[in-house]
Amino acid sequence: MLSPLTSLVLFILVALSVSLGLLIGSLFNKYENGMIVGVSISGVLMLLSEKFIMPSSLSHFLANLIEYNPFSLLENLLRMSLINMIPFNQLLNVVSVCILMIIAFLVLAFLGLMFSSDKMVS
Predict the structure, then answer these.
(1) Residue 120 falls within a domain, yes or no?
(2) Average pLDDT, stretch 66-91?
(3) Is residue 120 over pLDDT 70?
(4) Model-level pTM?
(5) What residues contact 91, with CB distance under 8 A and at least 6 apart?
(6) Total domains, the chain
(7) For residue 122, what pLDDT band results from cuts at 50, 70 and 90?
């Protein structure tokens, strides 16, 4: 049985992924364009998620950017909640960054839909 913290982490993982997908989908008029950009962005984020390229081998600026990669954040958050059983008050910083990312992606997606000439928001 999942702990409440792990359930919260999985909910944040799903919400962040969906909000990023909404942002990408709101920027493009055609399904194919959105899919190509979505796969490209996912590939770049996965490449820079500390699995293929270590942050210590990059410049200081890029290492700081990789620290806020959604894949890295969520992987570390899931690992801390499932394997290490770290209490919620110690994960609050990472959870708050993820929630701010979700809000930013949703606001940008709404603005993209609102100001798009071909799409209508009613």
Answers:
(1) no
(2) 82
(3) no
(4) 0.72
(5) 5, 9, 77, 80, 81
(6) 1
(7) very low
């606001």: which residue's tokens? 107
Long-range CB contacts (within 8 A, 24+) of 109-112: 109/19, 109/22, 109/23, 109/25, 109/26, 110/26, 112/23, 112/26, 112/27
Per-residue DSSP letters for 37-91?
Answer: HHHHHHHHHHHTSSSSS-GGGS-HHHHHHHTT-HHHHHHHHHHHHHTS---HHHH
Report if residue 122 sits inside a domain. no
The one-letter amino acid at 22: L
Q: Mind listing the pLDDT tens digit for each residue in 30-40?
A: 888 888 888 88
Residue-number span of the structural domain to which 103 is assigned: 4-115
